Amino acid sequence: MKEISTLRALRDNYIYVIKNNENAIVVDPGHEQPVFRYLQDNNLQLSAILLTHHHADHTGGTAELKQVTGCTIFGPDGHTVNEVVRGGEVKNILSFEIEVIPTPGHTRSHVVYHIPELKALFTGDTLFIAGCGRLFEGNAKQMWSSLQKLAALRDDTKVYCGHEYSEYNLRFAATVDPDNAAITEKLRDVRNTLAAGGFSVPSTIADEKKYNPFLRADDLSIRKHLKMESASDIGVFAELRRRKDYY
To answer: Is 127 helix (H, G, I), strand (E, B) or coil?
Structure first.
């Protein structure tokens, strides 16, 4: 059976387990214990780890998992990586064809992983539900370009992001796109889901285009609200990101 499971870790991180029968791939294990527990409970053998970037809350469990399981680690950088990926590669792991897409912005070497067979996109800290990552090492031009690559994927592609920031992101989205009914509806759904102990992930690319302001810097309603009707898309995106930094 091929399926994706979501694990919580640390304060608000998500770890993903991609299963193919008794074997598994793990995405961004910020802590090893939730992964070890899940593997044991489900009688799974860890074959590979996919890292989107080098930040410790996404890599913290990697060394322990590698030591115990002997898995292969794929990622853009870091001393624990066995096979470096930069973007543009297609990796065949557990019979999944996994497309590596470069998405600099949050970090210089950030990548995301797209598995067309599962209609799944693991976005790390590039694309969140109704949000995007801070620009720690990259710039607005890079991040806008990276997000446009992801927005160009099929609308039914499911978005599995690295953190549970959805409610906070949607509250911010309402401040820059106040007449967008999709934001109000999604915020209500997310609050209900989280209150019931569920996950706000995944969303879809189609949904993100409706309520994620960072994918909609070219939208006239947002531009009017910001009084930036004649600005470039990158300029509007940069202003959105600046406002979110101080929200």
So the answer is: strand
189 in active site: no
pLDDT digits (tens, 9 = 90+) for 166-220: 999 999 999 999 999 999 999 999 999 999 999 999 999 999 999 999 999 999 9
Q: What is the pLDDT of residues 98-138, one digit of tens each?
A: 999 999 999 999 999 999 999 999 999 999 999 999 999 99
Active-site residue (options: 31, 54, 110, 125): 125
Q: Which of 97, 106, 137 is nearest to 124 (CA)?
A: 106
User: Is 58 a catalytic site residue?
Assistant: yes
Annotated active-site residue in 28, 31, 54, 58: 58
Question: For this structure, is 79 an active site residue?
Answer: no
Whether residue 110 lies in the annotated active site: no
Amino acid identity of residue 179, one-letter, is D
Q: Give the CA distances from residue 185 to residues 31, 199, 209, 215, in Å, rounded to whole numbers and listed in that order.
A: 33, 16, 14, 18
Is 53 part of the annotated catalytic residue set?
yes
| Second CATH level (architecture) for the domain 2-245 | 4-Layer Sandwich (3.60)
Pairing of strands 2-9, 13-20: antiparallel
